[in-house]
Amino acid sequence: MISFCILYLPKDTECHCSLHHCQSTCTCFTSMNSNWHGLIVFFSLHLLLSGDVELNPGPMIDDQPDIFLLRKWLEPLVDWQPFGLLLPGITQQDIAMIAKSALGIETEHQSQKLILYCKWINKHPEAKWRDVLHALTVREETELAQTIKDKLHEGQCIGGGSVNVATCNSVGVYNKEPVSDLVKGNPNDIFRSHSDKLTDAVTTNLYRLADALHAKGLIPLDTKRDMYSVSGDNELKKAGKLLITLQTLMKSSQHPEQYLIDVCHVLVNQQNQALTDIATSMMKQLGKHNYVCIL
C-alpha cells in the first residue's frame, strides 16, 4: 500500500522530499495566500478518494481486544483458568463462576473461554492486547504469544463485525446480527412462562436485584422504593409486584426483546445460581444457540 503525506511549505520554499528515503508519495505545495487550509482539505479528500489510504488498520498491541479475535486467536489455549487469573481485573471468584457455567454452544471448554473474554472486557475497559501477550508469556505459551504478536504487527485482520466491545455490556455479548433477528419467541410469553420460578428466586435476592434493575434504568425509582417499604407486603408479594412491573414495562417498550435481554443480564450479574439458570433459559428461548450470555 502506498502511504501519503502532505507538506505545507511557506511561500518561495523548495520541496526536498526524497521518495527513496521516506518510502511514501509526498504531495508538496506552497502557500500563495492565507487560504492554505482549503488546500489541505482538498488534498486530503483527493487521497481518500484515491483508495490508497488505509482507513481501518488492523488491531494494535495497545488497542482493546476484540472479542471475535480473542475467540479466534486464543482457540489453541487449553488452560484458560490460570491464563484468566493473569488478566487485569479477573479474580478467582470470577474464574469459579465461569467454570460452573456453559452456554450450550460449541464445547463447554470453548464457551467458558468466551465467557472469560467478555467478562474481562467488561470489568477492565482498559484491557489491551499487551495484557493478553503478558498472560500468555507468564504461562509459557510462547508459541501462541508469538503468533498473536505477529498478527498484531502484520495488522492483517480487522475485528469489526462479529462480536466487539460495542455489543459487550456489563453481563452479555450478542451475536453480530441485530437482536430482533435473533428472537425466535415472544419475549412477553417467555418471561411469563418463567414467572413462577422467578418469583421464588427473586424473593431471596430482592433488594440487590431492585438496586441493579434501577441502576440499569429498567425500573423507575418508585418501584425500587416500594421494594424497600418496611410495612405492608412481605417479600414474596413484593417480588410478585416487581415481576408485574417488569412485564408491564416490557410490553410498553418499543424493543421488548432487548428489554428482556437487559433484564436477563441483570439477573445473571447477581451471581445467584437460580437466577442465572432462569436467565440462561430465557436467553436460549430468545436466541437459541446464536447468543452469548456471560456472568
TrEMBL record:
Protein name: Death domain-containing protein
Organism field: Amphimedon queenslandica
Lineage summary: Eukaryota, Metazoa, Porifera, Demospongiae, Heteroscleromorpha
